[in-house]
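HUMAN: Would you supply a protein with fold tokens?

ASSISTANT:
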Amino acid sequence: MHALPRDSLNFPDNFIWGTSSAGHQIEGSNEFSDWWAWEQEGLIEDGTVSGRAMDYWNRHEEDHALMAKLAYKGFRLGIEWARVEPQKDRFDHDAIEHYRRILQSLRNHGFKICLTLHHWVMPRWVAEQGAEHGWDGSRLTVGGQSAGGGLAAAVARQALEQGGPSIALQVLHYPPLDLVTAAKDKPAPTAKTVIRPWMGEVFDNAYAPDPATRADRLASPADRADTADLTGIAPALVITPELDRLRDEGVRYARRLREVGALVEHWDVPQADHGYDMDDLDKARQTYASIARHITQANQAEANAD
């Protein structure tokens, strides 16, 4: 990784340095969750299990002290539903009080807290009893924004290659789809795009430290060298902000999906840049209303086909 120019590392005075986490990834021993059950059943391809993870549940005070030593000012964490309500209608008050102590510790260290109430992982009883509430786990959609959109594209590609599971819709919201091309070589619609060249270098090194892996079809489905036939891949909704440095690769991939009949819609958000939905509430509401509508239509279409 090359050294970054000093003048590229200027941040606003109110910029909040911090870190982001998910409960199942760091707490450890989340035994009443659906992910814990899947891990124990060997459903993770490489056999990985979370186990004690970072043991944040027991060592959070040490972790907070380390973050303070690194001059962090913010922390995003989640509340694990499976800990709070491990069985239907049975709430674990000790776990609730434990979360209170964690949050108080963060406040004592002066951190700004971003609290996620549901970060994908569910209690096992919800997953097991979903059918009783009319939830059909056989109808799947995948999606994400930014890096999550890239992961969703990779999941859809794997489902195509492995013959399943069937995915009703993939939602790709300003995804990075070409790690082969450096951010500095991607066209910038404005003088100051949200994603600066140095950021692209940091992100690429974080997600794919070995440059040789960036050409993998799961990391760079919009790379021009990937010419595999995508016929049969999950239907896709692709959303690209007009001013995003990543727009061209999203447009290119949307065109590729259209050629095989997989593109449901490509929506270019006018006068918007990467991450616009975090500060432009009107555009965000329009986008997520459209996503919800497409997901509903896709699942209904799959149900009718059954």
Residues 15-131 form a domain with the TIM Barrel fold (CATH 3.20.20.80). Residues 4 and 198 are 7 Å apart (CA to CA). The first helix runs from residue 23 to 26.
